[in-house]
Write a structure and sequence with these properties.
three-stranded mixed β-sheet; Alpha-lytic protease prodomain-like; Alpha-Beta Plaits; binds zinc ion; mainly alpha
């Protein structure tokens, strides 16, 4: 009844696991260094131009820096093994990290919208557009490269925090592209309202991505079922149990960030020896774990057909 644990103990796997964790932390350090560079570039561009769109972009960078600090802290924490205080491990901090990041982004969006409207109403102009556009262009290229690198590393190492951070960095590239477009339109048309207009568009885009992160965080913290995982899990269980003359019910599963915890009842023929039932149950656990694309731990509850309803009379989830 402990199939999930048996398969994780081999020494080669442990070493690969440690290497993957080190690679994830190294990717996060790259992200942190790049965030400092981004902030400096954007503050420089804002000081040169006085653009509302670039200010919005820079404000987003401040939030981004805070978020990356928090994300690298929670990455290190989430890698700590389970202990007496946290017997299910520490990986749920990833969902808190995404929630804080999302909340900070929402606050930045409100600030940018406010600043854009203020500049629009007061009719303030922008200057030094050429230098501002070059700096913003450099920021876009750096963010594109970093974002793609983080998304790839997150997928390869299967680390949620890296993927979330990579998506955030790519969103920032779109934000900077918006600021660049605002400046370009100002140069082309000579109309001053392009800049605050793009400032507002940037605020809307940031609002959207911040909301997505908050939503993802709540989904994870509330153990919302992933329909795709549920379907695959039911199929794998049906296949492995029917092949061994067993049926299952009362299936539950929750995602703790890097590991899915599954519990399920297995119904055996009457009169089976506990030794044989345990052997079959362990086979089923291992086969299902091997068949699933996500990492899992399965706990089974062993029952016999004839007396199931009598034994569980009055239990709501028997
Ligand atoms: Zn066992
Ligand atoms: Zn039972
Ligand atoms: Zn049952």
């Amino acid at each position: 009844m402990d199939g999930g644990f048996h398969s994780l103990g081999d020494a080669g796997g442990m070493m690969k696991h440690a290497q993957a964790q080190a690679a994830a932390r190294s990717a996060m350090r790259w992200s942190l260094s790049a965030s400092f560079l981004m902030l400096a570039l954007k503050l420089g561009a804002w000081a040169l131009t006085g653009s509302a769109a670039i200010l919005g972009d820079a404000a987003e960078s401040v939030v981004h820096l805070a978020a990356v600090f928090f994300a690298s802290f929670s990455l290190a924490l989430s890698q700590r093994p389970p202990d007496a205080n946290h017997p299910y491990g520490h990986s749920k901090v990833a969902f808190i990290s995404a929630g804080v990041e999302g909340a900070l982004i929402l606050a930045a969006a409100v600030f940018i919208a406010f600043e854009s409207v203020r500049r629009w109403v007061s009719g303030l102009g922008v200057v030094n557009l050429d230098q501002g556009m070059v700096l913003t262009g450099v920021a876009i290229l750096v963010n594109l490269a970093l974002g793609l690198f983080l998304m790839r590393a997150g997928r390869r190492l299967d680390v949620f925090i890296l993927r979330a951070n990579g998506r955030h960095v790519l969103t920032d590239a779109w934000t900077s592209l918006g600021a660049l477009a605002g400046l370009a339109m100002t140069v082309l048309t000579g109309s001053l309202w392009w800049d605050p207009l793009f400032g507002l568009l940037i605020a809307a885009n940031i609002l959207f991505s911040g909301w997505g992160l908050v939503r993802e965080s709540v989904t994870g913290l509330m153990d919302e079922a992933d329909p795709a995982v549920a379907r695959q899990l039911e199929q794998a269980l049906a296949h492995e149990t029917s092949a061994r003359g067993v049926s299952f019910h009362a299936l539950r599963h929750r995602n703790s960030g890097h590991l899915h915890h599954v519990d399920v009842h297995l119904l055996f023929p009457d009169g089976i020896l506990l030794r044989d039932a345990h052997r079959r149950a362990t086979e089923i656990e291992r086969a299902v774990i091997a068949a699933m694309p996500v990492k899992m731990q399965i706990i089974t509850h062993l029952e016999t057909c004839g007396d199931h309803d009598k034994v569980h009379a009055g239990d709501p989830d028997a």
